[in-house]
Amino acid sequence: MTTQRQPEVFASTSYTDADLSFLVQTHYETEQLAWMLGHLRSHFPLARVIVRSDGDSDPLLPALVASQSAEFYLDPELYALARGGEVCHRWLELFFLRPTRYLFKLDPDTGIHRRFHFLPAHPGIFGTLQGNSRLISIQGGCIGLSLAAATQMFKSRAFLDPLLLEPERSWAADPPLQRLVRSRTQVSDDWLVGYVATSLGIPMFGFPEVQSLWKQYMPNPNLRFAITHPCKRMTL
What we know:
Layout: E1 12-13, E2 20-26, H1 30-43, E3 48-54, H2 61-67, E4 71-75, H3 86-95, E5 102-106, E6 111-112, E7 119-120, E8 125-127, E9 129-131, E10 136-138, E11 142-146, H4 147-156, H5 162-165, H6 167-170, H7 175-178, H8 189-200, E12 204-206, E13 210-212, E14 227-229
Parallel strand pairs: 2-3, 2-5, 3-4, 8-12, 13-14
Antiparallel strand pairs: 1-7, 5-11, 6-14, 8-11, 9-10
């Protein structure tokens, strides 16, 4: 089982915006997306920003994304349960069109409060750990990946493994795989990342600049965290 790295195990490193890519996936969340992108750009003005629409053809999206100097991709609904791990492979595919030292996958209701004070030098996947001894992952509001970790997952094509492309047939027989189902119709990308990282031996570790939960609002007094999830608009 891939385990948490203690803070002293990985050294901190400096960075510039040129080292960062942020990928946001949206599905009928245009208003939230506009709010989040504005704050993202206010703190990371020159970073690469990718917006992937999961089947949402809202005509406002292209202009909104362009106004924030971001890239827009209108894709099929890859979160569909029948598509298995395709959604995670797709966001790695977009990242590797122009890779950087780090990739951060974000949700539209993620709060961007300030710049990171540092980033981990140790390769792996980082953010807020969740799970137990059977399976752990990084909570999906903010998943950070080093270039080495993203490269290993992408080249392995593990998200396209038939086991992950036939969830209704294969996942029910394996309790850890049941965690990969968000609902009766959708996969859970954060648990997919955790499952693949564990199978490939990629380290996952907590990162103190991020505090991300599933549904519970996370306060951020004194800007303790650079990124929180979910975030209420009035707090920014």
